[in-house]
Amino acid sequence: MDTVEGIKVFVAAVQTGSFSGAAGRLGISAKLASKYMAELEARLGAQLLHRTTRRLGLTAAGERLMARAPDWLDQLDEMTGDLRETGRGLTGVLRVASSVAFGELHVMPLLQRFRGPHPALQVDLRLSDRFVDLAAEGIDLALRIGRLDNSALIARKLGEVRLLLVAAPGYLDAKGMPGRLDDLSAHACIRDTNLRDGAWNLAEAGVLRRIEARGPYAVNSPRAARDLAVLGEGIALCPDYMVRSDLAEGRLVQVLCETAGPSLDIHAVHLGQRRLARRTRALLDFLARDRFDGYLG
């Protein structure tokens, strides 16, 4: 048994909470993952995991190994990558997380460009509108829009997103164009529940106002909010990247253009307790050079 493979199974099992999760991450069967784990423990002469029907727990020996193994595996990957033929470029698996709409519209094309010179690199893009646990799911880099809550993560700002009030021309013809923020109370507002408190915080004449958006639709997707606005169901507060082409082609009209919608920062975040693998550092530098606000503008 290759000790390195056994340590990979051990780390993946701890991070995912199960041998089936480790097997899925490593592309092997759960039976083989369990076998590698047993052989590693036999070789080391120490039990590393407590196994129960519901979860895996670390023994004292397992805690000591887990404190060093992820960083060691990253260093091994970097060292072997440096020794490979230069023309092959970056190798291994790069796991990236993003929200669904932003990931589909902007992150995926950027990853395609990044991977172009690195044919041996595999990209695993995880799209979800929930906040993923980077450690539990083995994510190398996550792209997040808005306020960051987890101080244990290292963050690097990549750009900004503006939120715009938009509506379909047909809706505005029927209901009228609002002239000021107070007029929104007479309109159907399409609420995106991803905005933390559900309210719209908008500035009018330099004064920040909290607007209680009310209407028949509440959705947890900026794409769904945009789609409903295009269908004439009301006024939506949408990220600029989501509605840029709609505004240019007349499917949507910006409402209250003088009103300053909030700007949300785009960050790349990663775990702070480990050094970054070479491929992760390269992607982070690539994204920082690209600048999302310039790309979206």
From TrEMBL:
Keywords: DNA-binding, Transcription, Transcription regulation. GO terms for molecular function: DNA-binding transcription factor activity; sequence-specific DNA binding. GO terms for biological process: DNA-templated transcription. Signal peptide: none annotated. Residues 1-59 form the HTH lysR-type domain. SUPFAM superfamilies: Periplasmic binding protein-like II (SSF53850), Winged helix' DNA-binding domain (SSF46785). The keyword Thylakoid does not apply. Belongs to the LysR transcriptional regulatory family. This is LysR family transcriptional regulator. It comes from Stagnihabitans tardus.
